[in-house]
């Protein structure tokens, strides 16, 4: 058996063990069945690679069951499929986490900042998102979309008066889905992607050490960063 076939089977066996571990070592469940079962688990990236894994399983069976002798196999994996299975193995067994990929300094604002100051920042620095805090406690996320919505509502009421109006007035608390979420620094990128898919209102996912909203911000993920 060639070196590529050995490397391919070793990677396949590690993936198969990982699938087993996720399902607590089920009895009499084949590779393909485990893949299909785990593709329904949103917190895992199996769905992304489902078709690849099913094709890889066919190649594995051809290598193992159709081998003519120790030195010759009918199906020999090429370099592309070997690279592919290694990439899938890494994605499953050692998934990328939000830190360090999305680590960055995030500018925060006190909720009593005047709205007129927010508008100046938008004009001068082109910021589009404003995480609001009150003495270190997270209060909400203001976006350009929220600003536009607020101005539209105020205009319907009559003349817009920004005197003594602060960012706190922009926070919408209607008890429904929020436009932000917090995750710990070891959260996988796949988990964050699922958050965006499950909540169409989500404008940003903030990263703190342990997911505590009042912790120091280590980074931010926006929909355009994922999709």
Describe the structure.
Helix 1 (3-22) runs parallel beside helix 4. Helix content is 45%, strand content 15%. The model has no long low-confidence stretch (mean pLDDT 90). The chain is an alpha/beta fold. A hairpin with a 2-residue loop joins strand 1 and strand 2 (72-73). 20% of the residues are buried. It has helices spanning 3-22, 31-38, 50-65, 79-93, 98-101, 115-125, 144-157, 189-198, 223-226, and strands spanning 67-69, 72-73, 109-110, 129-134, 137-143, 180-184, 204-208, 219-221. It contains 9 helices and 8 strands. It is elongated. The strands form 3 sheets. The chain has a 3-stranded mixed β-sheet with strand order 3-4-5. Pfam families: CBS. This is CBS domain-containing protein. Residues 104-146, 178-226 form the CBS domain.
Number of strands: 8
Percent range of helical residues: 40-55%
The helix/strand class is alpha/beta
Rg from alpha-carbon coordinates: 25 Å
* Shape estimate: elongated
Mean pLDDT: 90
What are the segments in which pLDDT stays under 50 over at least 5 consecutive residues?
A: none
Spatial separation of the terminal alpha carbons: 41 Å
Protein name: CBS domain-containing protein
Domain CBS: 104-146, 178-226
InterPro entries: CBS_dom (IPR000644), CBS_dom_sf (IPR046342)
């Amino acid at each position: 058996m060639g070196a590529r076939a050995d490397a391919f089977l070793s990677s396949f066996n590690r993936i198969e063990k990982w699938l087993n571990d996720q399902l607590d070592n089920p009895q009499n469940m084949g590779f393909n069945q485990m893949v299909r079962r785990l593709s329904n688990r949103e917190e895992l990236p199996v769905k992304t690679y489902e078709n690849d894994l099913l094709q890889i399983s066919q190649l594995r069976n051809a290598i193992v069951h159709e081998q003519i002798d120790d030195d010759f196999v009918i199906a020999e994996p090429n370099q592309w499929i070997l690279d592919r299975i290694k990439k899938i193995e890494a994605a499953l067994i050692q998934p990328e986490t939000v830190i360090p990929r999305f680590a960055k300094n995030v500018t925060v604002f006190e909720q009593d900042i005047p709205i007129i100051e927010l508008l100046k920042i938008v004009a001068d620095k082109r910021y589009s998102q404003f995480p609001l805090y009150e003495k270190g406690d997270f209060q909400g996320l203001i976006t350009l979309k929220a600003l536009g919505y607020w101005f539209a509502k105020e205009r319907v009421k009559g003349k817009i008066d920004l005197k003594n109006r602060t960012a706190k007035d922009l926070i919408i608390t209607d008890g429904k889905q929020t436009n932000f979420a917090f995750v710990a620094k070891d959260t996988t990128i796949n988990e964050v992607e699922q958050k965006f898919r499950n909540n169409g209102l989500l404008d940003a996912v903030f990263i703190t050490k342990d997911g505590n909203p009042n912790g120091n911000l280590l980074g931010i993920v926006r929909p355009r960063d994922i999709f």
